[in-house]
Amino acid sequence: MSDYGAAEEDWELLQTFFPRDWEELAVTTRALKGLRQDKAAPTLMRTLLLHVGCGYSLRETVTRAREAGWADLSDVALLKRLRKCESWLHALSVGLWQQRGLRELSAGQRVVRVVDATTVKEPGKTGSLWRIHYSLQLPSLRCDFFKVTATEGEGTGEGLWQIPVQRGEYLLADRGYSTAQGIDSVVQAGAYVLVRLNQGGVRLRDAQARPLALLPKLERLRATGQIGSWEVQLESEQRRVTGRICALRKSRMAIEEAQRKLRREASKDSRELKPETLEFAKFVTVFTNFPVAEFPAAQVLEWYRLRWQVELVFKRFKQIAGLGHLPKSDEESARAWLYGKLIIALLTEKLVQHARTLSPWGYELAPPGYAQSVAGVLVHAPSSAAVA
């Protein structure tokens, strides 16, 4: 089979993983509006995937698209088209997310935001290294904040203080955002935060403002799924932030895997692993200032479980985002680029999932139109038994 024939077959197969109405969405979101030629969603998508998925520059993308006979346009025209595709790419991201079949939290009228950051190194020996900070609302995946900074120098690091926050919002973040400065910035804005605790990055006090030894409290959680919750004060430079530590003991298999990963990383870095680090690995521990009356500890951990499910996609996104040219000229093209990377990440996750249950013929008989399970991804709901 020729390379061209293989490429065409792969493209036909890839289309079966897109949302069922992906071509119609190109029309309703006006992604095709203004095109003088090649007014077909598949042609436009293939060109965009060259840029976003393969990491080619705008100039290299249009050259390859022209040689393949897909499109004949300039690099400037492609950038303009990328901007016009923002709504289309966002709609496809949401469609692929919904196909994962993950249970959504009942957020009501709350604004729920997941914040994260990653670095992007543009290709070439002199390629620039950038850090992108972004925020996505759940469950819509709408990007409401996107910021590009350098990776070195003052004001370039990851942190909740990078994110503009409005009163009453709910922010979910991973361990990298577990700093007193960032958490304090959210609380002072009148918002709420739920963050995986980095015990080495914050100083904790108990409700009476005494230094808190957290590990002895965690060790009281002896059964899988048992939950603990303790009022704490987190020390920042100017004040103390009041909140809660919520923790859950992992299953035996999860503990063994977490400890195995820690030992592997310590061996790779030639450093000694502290015994207490292995003990902390037995628990999922978060800090939050969510209202106690509305969010008992079990519900707090359920919200963090959703953050973890999103993180599985973000991890894939970060791997893919590190390859390519980041549009830096305007917010529209940057957001479209972000949605494009999310599409690639979600498609990759879906391809991996299907590869694990590969059928004899190697493809789906029809595009999926139903919610799918994510075996091996979801964790058991936490036990209602709590330790105070």
Q: What can you tell me about this protein's structure?
A:
- By secondary structure, the chain is of the alpha/beta class.
- It has twelve helices and ten strands.
- Strands 1, 2, 3, 4, 5, 6, 7, 8, 9 and 10 form a ten-stranded mixed beta sheet that branches.
- A hairpin with a 4-residue loop joins strand 7 (227-235) and strand 8 (240-249).
- The protein is elongated and about 70 Å long.
- Residues 1-6 and 366-385 have low confidence and may be disordered.
The parts where pLDDT drops under 50 for at least 5 residues are 1-6, 366-385
User: Which overall shape is indicated by the principal axes computed on the Cα atoms?
Assistant: elongated
**Percent of residues in helices:** 40-55%
Q: SSE order in H/E notation?
A: HHHHHHEEEEHEEHEEHHEHHE
State the secondary-structure class.
Answer: alpha/beta
Number of strands: 10
Biggest β-sheet description: 10 strands, mixed
Mean pLDDT across every amino acid position: 83
Helix run count: 12
Q: What are the main properties of this structure?
A:
12 helices; 10 strands; ten-stranded mixed sheet; alpha/beta; elongated; about 400 residues
Topology:
Blueprint: H1 3-15, H2 22-28, H3 41-52, H4 58-68, H5 75-84, H6 86-99, E1 112-121, E2 129-138, E3 143-150, E4 170-173, H7 180-188, E5 192-196, E6 204-206, H8 214-218, E7 227-235, E8 240-249, H9 252-269, H10 275-280, E9 283-288, H11 297-321, H12 331-356, E10 386-387
Parallel strand pairs: 1-4, 4-5, 7-10
Antiparallel strand pairs: 1-2, 2-3, 5-9, 6-7, 7-8, 8-9
Helix pairs in contact: 3-4, 4-5, 5-12, 6-12, 11-12
